[in-house]
Recover the amino acids of this structure.
């Protein structure tokens, strides 16, 4: 739902007569994390009218048969079942227990029916997987926890996954990233429904910032070398550990496959099944992460950082770094040092980076993770070709909401995206 005043009546007219906008249904499943599950309960389930926060009516619904077991072995008993969703104007799925399991068909049917009848559907963190399984994210922008974003994109290729956003508001379907981003999205919903004063009052009660955006985090966005727990007991774990220890060397996925005693095709398939990511993209991400750390902790030049992270050229480092972190290496270092001055010492002068021609940058991207152009061509790596493409509109940096409005005067809102045309 948009804050645009013209969009609100349209959404209200679409809402089925028996549904009420102020009624929020929260759909819980067994095995769901209790922290994420408690976020919409705290935001929408407590009467804070004394603080100027309009009241919602909360319906906590069991998405499957009770009892619902959650973190720490606790058992929950939801007061309502799926039938109660038929009264809600907003339906929230705070989390899903496992990205490898399919949600219950009855719950998916209830979500589809609610959406068809005009309800606003919200997925927090891994709840996006439930929305995707219901087909509600097809052709739409969405986000989820960064660790699971590759799996979401792989399993549901029609979803435009952007792991860099705190939340994505696509009108009647909204998704958020990890735990804290769920609070951001719930505050955004309150702001959309009742204005900034109500959302700010609620934020004060929760002792959280009233409005965060991905741009607010700026260069504090971190990549991580974490992998799903399942890989720990797999023979590939040793190969992954070797790769992380030798990122300063120039090697490619063929090298990793050979160390695993697998063919390239088998290694790709096995790696994807365990991580949800192509091995080449994972390797590029780890090299960028290493570069990020060196830029923070050393005085190496950008050229030296590129060499110490296994990139064949600084151009390749710049291209991949910008795509994954939204800034050039030099700009990242400058922003990081501005936030964390060391003992009051003046910051060393940074040499302005020379602008690279786009075609040169694209040519270097394919070799950025230690791949030669002939190797890429010989193996037909689709993921390498994707890495060499310019960033899509879904990943383009958003303008500040106070700067340029959308076509027709609609303002740009934090976390909000235009739905892709077509």
């Amino acid at each position: 739902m948009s804050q645009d005043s013209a969009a609100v009546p349209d959404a209200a007219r679409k809402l089925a007569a028996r549904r009420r906008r102020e009624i929020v249904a929260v759909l819980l499943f067994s095995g769901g994390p209790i922290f994420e599950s408690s976020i919409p309960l705290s935001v929408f389930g407590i009467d804070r009218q004394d603080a100027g926060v309009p009241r919602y009516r909360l319906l906590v619904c069991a998405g499957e048969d009770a009892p619902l077991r959650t973190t720490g072995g606790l058992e929950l008993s939801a007061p309502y079942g799926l039938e109660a969703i038929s009264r809600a104007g907003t339906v929230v799925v705070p989390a899903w227990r496992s990205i490898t399991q399919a949600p219950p068909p009855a719950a998916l049917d209830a979500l589809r029916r609610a959406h068809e009848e005009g309800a606003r559907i919200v997925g927090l963190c891994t709840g996006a997987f439930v929305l995707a399984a219901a087909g509600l994210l097809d052709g739409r922008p969405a986000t989820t926890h960064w660790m699971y974003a590759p799996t979401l994109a792989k399993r549901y290729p029609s979803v435009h996954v952007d792991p860099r956003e705190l939340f994505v508001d696509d009108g009647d379907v909204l998704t958020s990233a990890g735990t804290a981003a769920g609070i951001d999205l719930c505050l955004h919903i309150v702001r959309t429904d009742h204005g900034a004063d109500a959302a700010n009052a609620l934020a004060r009660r929760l002792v959280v910032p009233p409005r965060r955006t991905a741009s607010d985090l700026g260069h504090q966005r971190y990549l991580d070398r974490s992998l799903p727990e399942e890989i720990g007991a797999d023979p590939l774990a040793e190969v992954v550990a070797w790769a992380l220890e030798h990122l300063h060397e120039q090697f490619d996925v063929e090298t990793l496959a050979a160390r695993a005693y697998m063919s390239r095709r088998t290694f790709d398939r096995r790696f994807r099944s365990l991580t949800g990511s192509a091995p080449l993209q994972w390797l590029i991400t780890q090299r960028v992460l290493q570069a990020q750390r060196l830029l923070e902790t050393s005085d190496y030049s950008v050229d030296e950082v590129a060499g110490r992270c296994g990139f064949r050229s600084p151009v390749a480092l710049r291209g991949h770094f910008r795509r994954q972190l939204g800034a050039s290496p030099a700009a990242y270092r400058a922003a990081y040092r501005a936030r964390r001055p060391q003992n009051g010492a003046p910051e060393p002068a940074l040499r302005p980076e020379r602008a690279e021609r786009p075609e040169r940058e694209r040519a270097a991207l394919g070799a950025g993770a230690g791949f030669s152009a002939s190797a890429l061509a010989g193996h037909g790596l689709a993921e390498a070709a994707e890495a060499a493409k310019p960033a899509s509109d879904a990943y383009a940096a958003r303008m500040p909401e106070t700067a340029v409005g959308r076509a027709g005067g609609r303002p740009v809102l934090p976390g909000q995206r235009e739905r892709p045309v077509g």
Notes: The beta strands are 20-28, 57-62, 68-69, 75-76, 88-93, 120-123, 141-142, 160-161, 167-169, 173-176. Confidence is low (pLDDT under 50) at residues 1-13, 218-224, 342-422. The first helix runs from residue 7 to 14.
